[in-house]
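User: Predict the structure for this protein chain, please.
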Amino acid sequence: MSGGSYNYLCYHSDSLSEHRADLASMADRLEGLPWKPDAAVATRRCLALIEEAQRLAESLSHAWHAIEWWDSGDWGEDAAREDVEAYQPANGQRAEDVLYRLVNVGNGVFELRPVPAASGDNG
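Assistant: Here is the predicted structure, written as structure tokens:
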């Protein structure tokens, strides 16, 4: 066999969300090797980022729908504004103020979790 064990994952970096199962299998394989773990950890991180992006996109779907319908002439500005302004980021924080960290939750599973806002500086 000349490749393809992971559906040629190496050629799909532009469409990774469609290859989550392949990424998980690749991470499992990398974790099973007695070599430096950096590639396995980075693969799990990649998977966690894709999953977080999917959750974020799902939470934004109403706002995106509103703008798409307004721009296509199906809705008026007031209806679009209502849905966009109804969007609420996690914990009521502004999206641009939320920092995330990658957390190992066990069994090789990583999640992105918001970092609580610190008082004082950001650095």
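The longest helix spans residues 38-71.
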